[in-house]
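Hi P.,

Sorry for the delay on this. The queue was packed all week, but I finally got your sequence through. Input first:
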Amino acid sequence: MDMVELGAALPQQLGEAEGLWQLVFGDDARFQRRFYQLCGLEGPLVLCDQGRVMAMLALPPVSLVFPDGTRGAGGYVYALATHPEGRGRGYASALLEYAAQVLTQRGAACMLTVPAQPALFDFFARNGFCPAFYQRRVEAQPAPVCAHRLTPEAYTALREQLLAGQTYVSQGAGQAEVQGSLFGRPGRSGLYQLQLAHGPACAAVEDWPEGAVVKELLCAPEDWAQGAAGAAHLAGGPAQVRLVSGPEGTPYGAVRWLGGQVPAQWQARPWGWMGLGLD
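Then the structure:
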């Protein structure tokens, strides 16, 4: 890797980075630019070999919130991509290591990610990550409930309220808006508040041609069945609903702690909720 350079993408490299993102994930330049704008980023981190962008990732800021309300700054590894001509050369691992250095310099405590497929947990484990965020996934049949749409700002506020007292990843309203832009068919997809038997709930509903998915349903445990049915109704039919879970659930996201320091709160209960991974 004698000719390899790592850093924030320069203006003249942004077009090449956009092309790599679109090649690997299919999102066009318009979506990417809006993503950077909403997440408060100027662009991606890139790895260049002999002047060509061979790998990239985006690193929006997030916070990890503990049950006592304390927060640890972090970065979320998103859209990690390697050019097909450069795979198998360690580019992605080198870029992850560089991202860890960038976050450490910013005073961040951790780096988070959602592997695009289960097999990639092994790749991230080789780069210092461990499974940390889990989901319980249920198939729900629809039943109506009282519900209304929320703005990204209102959804984020209700989400923080419902997750208080747990360990969870906190994302800004801009990132909630990005999640909204990833929804499938318009109409039923959206961010919702539901009124259930034991209080309010929130749900991120995605109606895709191949089937509806509720990316997160947050509510009182006593309301899980009612909430899942209500969220499926909002999606227009049977839906996969993702609920808060401990390690007995399906692994969803992973964490890498930086600086050799693992917070005592995490050591006591080493898992949490992510939910909205912009996937």
